[in-house]
Amino acid sequence: MSTQSSRRSFLGHAAAGFSTLALSRLAQAQPTTEPPPRAAQIEHAVTEPVSVEVNARPIPNFEPRDRSRVRFGQLQYRSGLVLTSPYRGFGGLSGIRLDAKGERFLAISDQGGWFTGSIRYSGGKMVGLDDVEASPMLNSECRPITEKRFWYDTESLARDGNVVYVGLERVNQILRFDFAKGGTRARGEVVPTPAAVRKLPSNKGLEAMVVVPKGQPLAGTLIAFSERGLDADGNLVAFLIGGPSPGQFSVRRTEKFDISDAVLLSSGELLILERKFSWFTGINIRIRSIPLKSIAPGALVDGPALFAADLGHEVDNMEGIDAHVTPEGETVLTLVSDDNFSMLQRTLLLQFTLVE
């Protein structure tokens, strides 16, 4: 089979996979009594700490149709990996945070599990993962959070030093973990949130979070974004939790995109990763830039798109984004995809340089 035929076949299968996913989420979003979770939703949960073998296949070109192209909007493609593992709990990656060097990572699966490890580089390009370990996410009683009904849809991740926040979309709760007390074995404590957070749609709720560091506007605030919780004008609802000015604000929704993650740069630029699905075009992703200084209670914020891609590029269900700065001063964005534990989808790790 030719490369182009293989690619068309993949796009067709991927679109079919996302169609199935869309139908599933549509059914789950109906305003009827929430059905009990299907066994498939938690069958990939991590049950105990374990070392995980992860295989990596390089992605030499982000756009197979034009292999000479490396610039995409304000991003320049650096490298990418297709990740696979014989461990059945590997997948569903919905958030990632890197250390300052872009090497050590902390990631979450939407089945209530942690993944830690290191990205291995060669000549500035990612070539594999090392020392990967999976662990169950624990509640305040030191039990896996998945033991509680609907407490498995862990979709958003924020980190402030040793303090890690995880958002559970299905129940719209936030857990706080002190990694100084055992790392991924730390116990999660429920963070008090505004009542409006818990009223978000159960499958379109908390999807992205960032912590504002010292020296930035709103320092000390946990900013939480909904995937598709909408205000009266159809814009995306977000919350300022703690910090100097707690409250609610909105992100302008355009072209039917939903929020899947966010990262705050040291420049004060908030990058929001968004996606949408259409039965005609498949998956589309984009990254928008919003000035942190524009965010305040009651505000409606907006910003330009820096990057956009579709199934003509090497993308999948991209759900996580983070950033680090190289010794040369380059800002590198790392994106990860959630494969929904489906054979029709892939776990991708992509890196781009942000071009000024």
Strand segment tally = 24
SSE string, helices as H and strands as E = HHEEEEEEEEEEEEHEEEEEEEEEEEE
Which ranges are low-confidence, i.e. pLDDT below 50, for 5 or more consecutive residues? 1-41
Count the DSSP helices.
3
Distance between the termini: 41 Å
**Estimated structural class:** mainly beta
- The average pLDDT value, as a whole number, equals 89
How large, in whole angstroms, is the Cα Rg?
A: 19 Å
Q: Largest sheet at a glance?
A: 6 strands, antiparallel
Shape: globular
Into which percent range does the helicity of residues fall?
under 10%
**Fraction of residues in β-strands:** 35-45%
Keywords:
356 residues, mainly beta, six-stranded antiparallel beta sheet, five-stranded antiparallel beta sheet, 3 helices, 24 strands, globular, disordered N terminus
Structure summarized in a few sentences:
The protein is mostly beta strands and 356 residues long. It is 10% helix and 44% strand.
Q: If you had to describe this structure to a student in words, what would you say it looks like?
A:
This protein is mainly beta. The protein has helices spanning 3-28, 39-42, 195-198; strands at 50-51, 55-58, 71-72, 75-84, 93-98, 104-109, 113-122, 125-136, 154-160, 163-168, 173-178, 188-190, 206-211, 222-230, 236-241, 247-251, 258-264, 269-278, 282-291, 300-301, 305-310, 318-325, 331-337, 347-354. The strands form 5 sheets. Strands 2, 3, 4, 22, 23 and 24 form a 6-stranded antiparallel β-sheet that branches. It has a 5-stranded antiparallel β-sheet with strand order 1-8-7-6-5, with no helix packed on it. It is globular and about 50 Å long.
